[in-house]
Amino acid sequence: MSTQGQIDFYWRPGCPFCMSLERSLTKLNVPLNKKNIWENPADAAHVRKVADGNETVPTVTIGGTSMVNPSPKQVVAVAAKEFPGLVPDADGAAKGFRNKLRRT
What we know:
The protein is built from five helices and four strands, in the order βαβαββααα. The chain is an alpha+beta fold and about 100 residues long. A four-stranded mixed β-sheet has the order 2-1-3-4, with helices on both faces. A hairpin with a 2-residue loop joins strand 3 (about 60) and strand 4. The radius of gyration is 13 Å and the shape is globular. The termini are far apart.
């Protein structure tokens, strides 16, 4: 479970899916608390717990919600629900997601 007002982004070096999701969320100004699962056994254990025993990344935990390999739109929607106001322009990002990514 993530800390209040924090989006925990579990990743590992060399993961193209992690890099893609991080790039998209950064364009949307989504604040991330990055956790490298290869550097911290507790972070790897958390990912295994929510990913059916696998170390599947990216895994994102927002409040009481964990998502394995989510889309940027899913992350924004859950962040807006769990921590209103954390993600700048979350409503606009959720509604015009593709256009928002293209403009940045």
